[in-house]
Structures are given as structure tokens and as C-alpha cells.
Amino acid sequence: MMDRMGCAADTSKSIKLERYNSYIRRVNSTKLLNASSKLLFRATLLVALILVFIFTFNYPPLADTTHRHLHAHSHFLSSAFGAWEKQVRHSSTPRRPNGLTVLVTGAAGFVGTHCSLALKKRGDGVLGLDNFNSYYDPSLKRARQAMLSKHQVFIVEGDLNDKPLLEKLFDVVAFTHILHLAAQAGVRYAMQNPQSYVTANIAGFVNLLEVAKSANPQPSIVWASSSSVYGLNTENPFSELHRTDQPASLYAATKKAGEEIAHTYNHIYGLSLTGLRFFTVYGPWGRPDMAYFFFTKDILQGKSIDVYETQDGKQVARDFTYIDDIVKGCLGALDTAEKSTGSGGKKRGPAQLRVYNLGNTSPVPVGRLVSILEGLLNTKAKKHVIKMPSNGDVPYTHANVSLAFRDFAYKPTTDLPTGLRKFVKWYVGYYGLQQRVKRETRLDN
Ligand SMILES: O=C(O)[C@H]1O[C@H](OP(=O)(O)OP(=O)(O)OC[C@H]2O[C@@H](n3ccc(=O)[nH]c3=O)[C@H](O)[C@@H]2O)[C@H](O)[C@@H](O)[C@H]1O
């Protein structure tokens, strides 16, 4: 009995022990499972966050094939695309009745930023596109992007030559208009990097037109040509009727080529196209490669500046045009642009084709530009007067704007001293040079 009892007690002990051990094993394995699933969850979350970040802020740089592959296999990726598309749609949606839906190329550029802001402020939908290249300090472009972002303008980072990207944008948004401002700018840089002008101003423009002509509906397009197309023209002031077949720089030649390409796409596909010939645009958030901008910098830093004169010793002059006047011209051109007549790559009838000068109608010698800056900066410039190098420059520009006035009441209102004052105020604010200017102001007094 005792034996049986003892045996029974032993058996029951060993059963209990076995149960206890199995409990402990279960607890441990659950803990292990919990720990590993936590790890897995965290890793997945991290990957998802990285993908969301990449596709929200950096969608275009990834290879398209990579997109498709990942898209097919990842739930997280599709939600990242969702976030990107949401941003694209949100930015493009007009906030006023009958508002425009505008794709602004070169939106992080000087004119692009100002136009995007003006369109957004009046209730139009605006989506930016910019490749943020390093032709000049990209941090200035990033600062413009940050400003636009505060006003709900989203800039897609991508290149004009990326056809799948452009097609994707047109899949997501039915743009009514394109304001095409992306370009390789600068007349003198064309001798250093000629290919960049062909890539952006010709190939990029054609790529954009190819996508636009196939879109349904086709958008109306307003784009930036240049006063430089007048080249060696000697008739003054420059009228749209004057000859433009003698460009003095490759930059000018690519802009002139753009005007001819515009004619072709209008003729074959019924795209509504308006080219705007900008005359030396200046102002706050301007381009550091332009003379008024780097003269300001160099004068403040006590460096000498080259002031060009013609071969026969005459002053070089420009019809400097203030950015706000240019913005009004761009918006006027957009508002009066008729609809394209084609759809899905087929022309259905004749469409509008226009070219306008947008200038200030009042040329100012470069020497005068320098003395206005000297006054505003309270600093004497170290001027080095030299003959204008033959690297693309023209001696003189002067716009006749009667056509733009007739068609959309374009009337420039800012003279050079007023516009430069606004520029210098922005410049010292942005680059933090107020102290220096103030100190010099005190010393001069
Ligand atoms: O309207 C345009 O279609 C172009 O305008 C602008 O070209 P430009 O009018 O040449 O402006 P910008 O370089 O600021 O030179 C201004 C003046 O300073 C003189 N200049 C220049 C440099 C220098 O070192 N010294 C000098 O005297 C120079 O001789 C000139 O007289 C845009 O850059 C260009 O992208 C395009 O849009």
C-alpha cells in the first residue's frame, strides 16, 4: 500500500513536475515569440518609415523599375505611393471656383518660385517640378522650396527628361496649364557647358511637349523664352516682329529653337503655346549667377567687379525687369491662354500660338546699375571696366511690350532703383549681412 502509495505519490510528483516544466517552456517560448515579434514589428516599421520617407520626399530619383518591383511586393510601398500621390493631388487642387491646375516646371528657380506663390495665393492649384541641379547654390533652391512648402506648394524632385515621371504626374493630375520655366539659364556659361543647354532647353522641352500632347485633356502651355533671341538685331526697341535668326550665344540659340519647336507642336498636335521673352529679370530670391546679384556680393566683400563696355567704348545696357512685373505677365499669359484643341496625341483644330516680350521698356547702362547698388549698400565698388568678352553677351536690350499690353494689359511698374532696393533688403536679410551694411552706413555718415 505504502509502496503503491509511495509510487502513486512519486507518479503524481513527476506528473506535476512535468506539467510545471512544460508551463515554463511555454512561458519561455511565448516570451521568445514576443521578443522576436517585437523585433520583427520594429524592423518592419523602420523599413516602412524609410519607404514612406523616400517616396514622399524623394520619389523620382529611384529607378522606375525599382518602383514597380517594390510596388508589386510591398504593402508599405503602396501606402508610400499613396502618401506621395496625396501630396501631389493636394498641391494641385485649386481652392477657388474655376481655378487653374498648373504644373510649374523649375518651381524652385527664381521666376518659378514667385509665380508658384502668386498662383497659389489667388487660389489656383500648383504642382512644382524641379531637378535641384547645382548650376548655382542648391541651398538657395531648397530655401525657396521650404518657403513654397509653407504655402502648400509641393515640388516633385525630378527631371524634365524623365518621361515616366512626367507621365505619372499627368496620370495623377489633369493639369489645365503648364508654366514651363525649367531651363539651363545664363548666356556666358554656355561656353563652359554647352551640352547642358541642349539637354534642358531642347531635349527637356521636347520631352515635356511629348507628354503634354498625349495627355487628355491637353494642357495649355506658357513657357520662358528669352530676350536673348534678338541676338545681333539692331532695330530698337525690340519687337516680336524683328528678326531673331542671329543668336549670339548657344543659350539664345536653344531658346530660339524652343520657339520653333513650339510652332511644330502647335501645328501638328493642336497644343496651345505661348512663349514669353523675359528681359534680364531681377529681384528678391534671384539668381546668384546674374550680374546685379554677384555685384552686390562682391561690393559687400570689398572685391573688384568687372563692368563691361562695348568694343567701341560705349556702355553696355539692359532692360532690367523686376520680378513682380514678370509674374504679372506670366499670370496674364496663363489667364488668356486658350485651350489646346487636340487630345490624346491628335489635333482637332487650329490652336493658339503666341510670343510676347516681357521687359521694362527702359534700358539702363550697367554703370548706372553699379552706382545704384553703391548707394543702397553705402559702399564704393572697386570697378574694373573692361571690354565685353565675346562669349555670348549682346551690348543692348530694350523691349517693346505693346503686344503684351494689348492682350493681357501687361504694364511694368517698377523702376530699377525701386526694384534693387527690394532686392538688397532681401539680400541682407537672407545672407545675414545687415550688421555689416549698418556699420558701413554709420561709418559713411
Ligand atoms: O534677358 C535674358 O534673356 C537673359 O537675361 C540674363 O542675361 P544678361 O542680360 O546677360 O544678365 P546678366 O548676366 O546679369 O548681365 C547683366 C549685364 O551685366 C553685364 N555684366 C555681366 C557680368 C559681368 O561680370 N560684368 C558685366 O558688366 C552684362 O554684359 C549685361 O549687360 C540672364 O542671365 C539670362 O539667363 C537670360 O534670361
UniProtKB/TrEMBL annotation:
It is a multi-pass membrane protein. Gene3D superfamilies: NAD(P)-binding Rossmann-like Domain, UDP-galactose 4-epimerase, domain 1. The keyword Protein biosynthesis does not apply. The keyword Isomerase applies. Residues 102-339 form the NAD-dependent epimerase/dehydratase domain. InterPro entries: Epimerase_deHydtase, NAD(P)-bd_dom_sf. The chain crosses the membrane at residues 39-59. Its EC number is 5.1.3.6. It holds the Pfam family Epimerase. It is found in: Golgi apparatus, Golgi stack membrane. GO terms for molecular function: UDP-glucuronate 4-epimerase activity. Belongs to the NAD(P)-dependent epimerase/dehydratase family. Homodimer. This is UDP-glucuronate 4-epimerase. It comes from Sphenostylis stenocarpa.
